[in-house]
Amino acid sequence: MSNDPLGFCAHDHASCMRSAMKAAQEACAARGVQFTKVRQRTLEILLESHAALGAYDVLARLNAEGLGSKPPVAYRALAFLVEQGFVHRIERLNAFIACARPGADHDPAFMICRACGTVAEAETASVGLKASASQSGFQIEQTVIEAEGLCPTCQTGAGT
After folding, report:
1. At 8, is the secondary structure helix, strand, or coil?
2. How confident is the model over 17-31, as a mean pLDDT?
3. How far is residue 116 CA from its own chain's centroid?
4. Are 121 and 108 within 8 A, CB to CB?
5. Global pTM value
């Protein structure tokens, strides 16, 4: 997959979804973990758009489809998907988004449109941060960058 941020650019979204689901299924099989129907459907829900969804938004969809009505259903599925690297938690929004690069070792950066809520994931240029951390003896385990602004569509007024 390219380093172009998905979410703000035109792409074959159906192919994007199929590819992510296939990567998740293969990774779960290789890792020997269960990719249950609720976990699969949770990932599909998050893949349907590039907007971040809260756990209760996911739960409402699962409940409407008869897959569970109690908060732990959504929280457990989301926790599994985050742990497996298929989903990221967007701290700023207290929400979740499907990973644009499932299976790839990467440090994501998120661009969040404050007008329409679209979130695009891009690869960070964290080399400088890692070098600084190394020099100071700090071991980075995870980096997440979240930036808020306006997407190209909302800048032109077409998204409002």
Report:
1. coil
2. 92
3. 17
4. yes
5. 0.81
Between these two residues, 157 and 149, which has the higher pLDDT value?
149
The CATH classification number of 13-155 equals 1.10.10.10
Instruction: State the Cα–Cα distance between residues 82 and 154, nearest whole angstrom.
Output: 29
Number of residues that this document lists for the chain: 160
Hey, what are 157's tokens? 């007024």
In the chain, what is the greatest distance between 2 CA atoms, to the nearest angstrom? 53
Residue spans of the domains in the chain: they are 13-155
Half-sphere exposure of 49 (CA within 13 A, CB side): 8
Compute how many other C-beta atoms are within 10 angstroms of the C-beta atom of residue 33: 13
| Residue 135 neighbours by CB under 8 Å, 6+ apart | none
Top-confidence residue, 159 or 156: 156
Beta-strand relationship, 95-98 and 87-90: antiparallel
